[in-house]
Model the fold of this input.
Amino acid sequence: MFQKLYDWIDERLDITPLWRDLADHEVPEHVNPAYHFSAFVYCFGGLTFFTIVIQILSGMFLTMYYVPDINNAWDSVYYLQNDVAYGQIVRGMHHWGASVTIVMVFLHALRVFFTGAYKKPRELNWIVGVLLFFVILGLGFTGYLLPWDMKALFATKVGLQIAASFPIIGDWIKLLLQGSDIVGAQTLARFFAIHVFFLPALLMGLMAAHFLMIRRQGISGPL
Amino acid sequence: MHRGKGMKFVGDSRVPAKGKFIPPKDYSEYPGKTEAFLPNFLLKEWMVGAVFLIGFLILTMSDPSPLEKEADPTSSGYIPLPDWYFLFLYQLLKYPYASGDYKIIGTVIIPGLAAIGLLLAPWLDRGLERRPIKRPIATSIMLLTVVLMVYLTWESSVTHNWEQSEQQGKIVKQVEIDKSSKGYQLYSQNCAGCHGQNLEGGVGPALVGKNLNPAIVSSMATKGGGNMPPGVFKGSKQELDVLAKFVSDVSKK
Done:
């Protein structure tokens, strides 16, 4: 029955090449931990993707309770943390997931670096990967402010001072992020927008490019 | 052009056999056993993912994510601390050659060079050799960077005053205080500067919830102790008793 359904769709949309790229390919022995345990280093990229999926899903649930406004932000997080059923777990997944994502991205980058996998013909994918790393650090930085507690506010103030120290455009970057003369309501709204819309959009676009290039070029060969 | 099922591919990618793109070698040309991604390999990956998820969920349940008290922009003396993965950058700014007049070295130049170096790695390290041991310069620079990052993070965490920042960030419950009382007047003249208008703490620790007895309060207010200097309270003996009773009562709420 599935074969008939598949044929019906394939006749109209020609999905075989798509399906082939997505799922129908071989995994070579040198990256398969089932054959060589040391090949687990090749799993870090996949685990990064897995933790990003956790971040996206838990983040979607967080926005059901979170209010991006300085009067209510902290109270909404406090309520979620203490009164909502499983709220502590959802917030915990997003909070700890951020750290786990950074660790996994770092390990993945080190694996690619030390196996020399960024060399020709994979230079472009390396660049996309480094940009992904920066986007993820940006997500970490903007997400830190959102609970609007003491450390969020004061760490963000320091971060914005660092941004302001850029030559020439520093003050402009600071104003763009801060939205007003002080770290306040505008800043929280901007960081929320950047954290929830701008950077995730960039993240997904870059991830799509990352994966397309992997499928097109294949995994680098054994050392 | 031939389309759909039965299309001829080269290697592992969606490149038609007649295309010009020179694809990487087919995995069947590598020695050893290959395995189909779907379903064989994905199923194993799924199991590893499930184990990882269980460990991760245990972490989230055993360690609830921290939440400090609501941001108070007027609070002074709070020691800011970024999330742990920015600590190495933060620590860099504490060294004299990367702070003050040379701040730009720590905030822009060093991180900027590192970022550009990382982006341009494929062009900086152009040799055909891929084994880390055969390209000693690239390998040693990266190892040195990682060691430095770990060292700076470590330095930052041992020099940070964790106790004080925990004290400063602690969520203090709001208690009702009779602000017209004589005790509160004395409190706001003598103590509120450090312990806060609502005894919630500031430079000094919070007094709410500490369950202090009056003798300790009056001793601290006159003789000091810990970080508190002696002789903070200025007033008569009767006033000291009123103050001690007031603070003690509020601290028990």
Q: What stands out?
A: The beta strands of chain A are 26-27.
